[in-house]
LL-diaminopimelate aminotransferase (Muribaculum gordoncarteri), 411 residues
Amino acid sequence: MIKINDNFCELPASYLFSDVAKRINAFKAEHPDVEIIKMGIGDVTQPICPAAIQAMENAVADQADRVTFHGYGPEQGYDFLRRRIVDVDYRSRNIDIDIDEIFISDGAKSDTGNIGDILSTDCKVAVTDPVYPVYVDTNVMAGRAGHLVDGRWSRIEYLPCTAENGFIPSLPKDNPDVIYLCYPNNPTGTTLNRSQLEKWVEYAKDNNALILFDSAYEAYITEPDIPHSIYEIPGAKEVAIEFRSFSKTAGFTGLRCGYTVVPKELKGLSKNGDEVSLNALWNRRQCTKFNGASYIVQRAAEALYSTKGRHQVKETIAYYMRNASLLRNGLSAAGLEVWGGVNAPYIWVKTPGGLSSWEFFDLLLEKCGIAGTPGVGFGPSGEGYFRLTAFGRYEDTVAAVERLSSLKLNK
Ligand code: PLP
């Protein structure tokens, strides 16, 4: 028989969302009349904006005509989109990013998962805890994580983010080579302000670490002191790769498009002691394993940067953030402690009365017919917390808040 990558055997099966579904189904069977409001999985509910739909219709027509037909595109993405990204996402914020530093992809999950291809399997990794599980699991697959002991991987450094430290992770102690940061954060909805992020860039410079900065929720930032890009911090181009996604910005979860910025300043060390450009390595990796995001989808992404597109995207984000604010207020009024929901579409709730994440899941389902996500599913420091998303429909969010008002809690 074929030998397999044994690292996959180290990974425990992921039961989080299937366990959630099982409990919801059992509840439904017992209470067929209750309309369950699902606020768990982080998918969006609002349609793609008209500007992007129109662009896709035009692109479909292009594909129907021999003159305008597009076959394989550049692996790095079309310049029409990369140029818009450079101008609107970076140059307008006085950040100098070269078009060759932008790599269009089919989303941030692939890129945050694949970036390890260009890094040594010896690299030590640090993650904030709780965390988007892709960062951890892909390092397990690559053999960087060691063994699972009491819910923690032996070779991964966990940086707890809890109410006790205001969800601001401490700098690492184990000298990691690679640090994953995700801000605005999934699942906690919290952020780092400029001076907090500066400390990380300084740390990475002083300790030769690489920061993998996931800003999939950048479009939800409302407060002025929160950086939209790590490259707003001087020197970050020497230490950080940034990942962006159109999924939550513009409802592209089903269309699939995102991009990654790999600055040319970033250098790695080969085993022969040579300095190698990470941009060149990522380019090589993409050209070998990826044939580019689809032309139609890249035209849709381009349209998000038009005047109309930008306006329409803002409207949808405002719709979700109205939900977020309703939810925050409703949960607080029910006597719960909440974070997030100001610069992110996620609300992070402290479970009341010392309940575990799963006990609170059951309570909220039984008392209110609301299904969220147990915080412990995102890492050990998520125990005792719970995630609700603002991506639902407004009417459902209003109904959820109404139901929450009847919740009697023993804190
Ligand atoms: N990064 C974070 C932090 C996310 O929460 C998600 C999706 O939930 C992604 C990346 C994936 O984004 P995409 O849809 O672009 O693959």
The pocket of pyridoxal-5'-phosphate is lined by residues 42, 107-109, 112, 132, 182, 186, 214, 216, 245, 247, 253, 258 (CB under 6 Å). The CA atoms of residues 104 and 259 lie 4 Å apart. The first helix runs from residue 7 to 10. The first strand starts at residue 37 and ends at 38.
